[in-house]
Design goal:
By secondary structure, the chain is mainly α. Helix content is 62%, strand content 0%. It contains 5 helices and no strands. α1 crosses α5. The longest helix is centred in the last third of the chain and has 26 residues.
Amino acid sequence: MALIPYELKQALASADLRHISPHELAKLGGYLNFNGEISDNAAGEFLVLTVNNDQYDLNPDVPIDAIKEYERRYALINQAIDSGEQGMEDARRYLGDVLHTLYNLDNAATSLRVGSQIDTKA
């Protein structure tokens, strides 16, 4: 994290993936992708919430828990596979990668907000 630019650190530190609108997630994804921090696939998936709400009334301007939303989507894919649906393995792998990216971003953003602390009592 020490090597990424200050502006990028600020963008991450101000992001709360557990309370972010789909519109803000798409903007963050585009910014991070432009700076080489996340893949085209992840950035594209972040944009999907603003255009395709998968029959769930997601307002692109109302904050959601993005991590829970993608965990829900991943669970739906797993249910489809478990019920015998064919051809969903790529979707599971793809959403698994997106979730992995979200978990990493959430950890990075949290550590930037909190700051690294060294336990001097250890």
